[in-house]
Write a structure and sequence with these properties.
Layout lengths: L1 H71 L3 H12 L5 H14 L7 H15 L3 E5 L5 H7 L7 E6 L2 H13 L7 E5 L2 H4 L2 H4 L6 E6 L7 H10 L3 E9 L8 H8 L4 E10 L2 E13 L8
Parallel strand pairs: 1-2, 1-4, 2-3, 4-5
Antiparallel strand pairs: 5-7, 6-7
Length: about 290
């Protein structure tokens, strides 16, 4: 028994030595913990806040919209139109726009423009004074109303929407705002098919103003090149591209900013109904005489 106890003693001593050997590193760790906490806590808090806002946006803009569509069979644009019909003053563009802003701010965002970018859009339209204006991407008709209501008598807005159902809602929205069919025309179909129709079927020579408003910039360059190829731009034509801070617009920006056929300027702003998120619009002026690059 004594031998057994003695045999165990070296093991106990060995373990004790191991524990005491960890003490210096443990002390150092305790010393660094406040420093690490001072660095990591603010970073983790910022990341949590950022993800928190993104999760809320995803929940409101994606999940709830999808769920309501499944539940009611109505698209977000149709739901917004129904709200406008009930809560706006018909025949008043300002009332329809403010009601749409209210809907987008409280419930579902159905436009990529909104008040801040809407003011930039209207400023560019007023400055350019177009006779023939083009919008690529009608969506719910929000930006189309902002453009068309500023056009001079005899001027006209052509707005393209790929989805026929959305195009129908947008047209009704514009009529409720008090706009007439002599002031605008909604065209449906793919942009690649619709753009060549302007000269052949609609008798449009060139556009003085173009608003690129479809998607998040991934097709801006392709659409701009097609407008050039169809000779729908003339010297002095103004193009305004929406939401160019998205990654999809990076190629478009790098190309046009280095192209001597365009004079460009950037308009910084906030994202629609999201004051904590930066956004921007790019303005281009076409400088060629023949409406096409060599």
């Amino acid at each position: 028994m004594m031998g057994t106890a003695g045999a165990g003693e070296p093991n106990i001593t060995k373990c004790g030595a191991g524990v005491s050997g960890l003490d210096p590193s443990s002390e150092r760790l305790k010393m660094w913990l406040p420093v690490l906490a001072a660095i990591l806590v603010p970073v983790c808090t910022a990341l949590a806040n950022r993800c928190h806002h993104r999760l809320i946006r995803f929940y409101r803009q994606r999940f709830l919209g999808w769920f309501k569509t499944c539940l009611t069979g109505m698209s977000p644009e149709e739901r917004a139109f129904r709200y406008v019909l009930t809560n706006s003053t018909h025949g008043k563009p300002e009332s329809v726009l403010s009601t749409l802003d209210e809907w987008c701010g409280k419930y579902e965002r159905v436009t990529s423009t909104g008040p801040a970018k809407g003011q930039i859009l209207e400023s560019v339209v007023q400055r350019s004074g177009p006779v023939r204006a083009l919008e690529l991407g009608t969506n719910c008709g929000y930006s189309a109303i902002r453009i068309a209501r500023l056009l001079q008598p005899g001027a006209k807005l052509y707005t393209l929407e790929q989805d026929p159902k959305t195009a129908e809602v947008a047209e009704e929205m514009m009529l409720v705002a008090g706009l007439k069919h002599t002031q605008f025309q909604v065209i449906t179909g793919s942009l690649s098919e619709a753009i060549p129709r302007f000269k052949k079927s609609l008798g449009v020579g060139t556009f003085d103003f173009v608003f690129l408003n479809q998607g998040q910039g991934t097709d801006y360059l392709k659409d701009l090149c097609q407008l050039e190829e169809e000779r729908l731009l003339s010297k002095g034509s103004v193009i305004l591209a929406n939401s160019v801070t998205h990654s999809g617009a990076a190629g478009f920006l790098s190309t046009v900013r280095g192209d001597p056929h365009y004079r460009t300027s950037f308009h910084p702003c906030t994202a629609p109904y999201e004051k904590d998120i930066t956004d921007g619009m790019e303005e281009l002026v076409f400088l060629k005489d023949d409406g096409k690059r060599n």
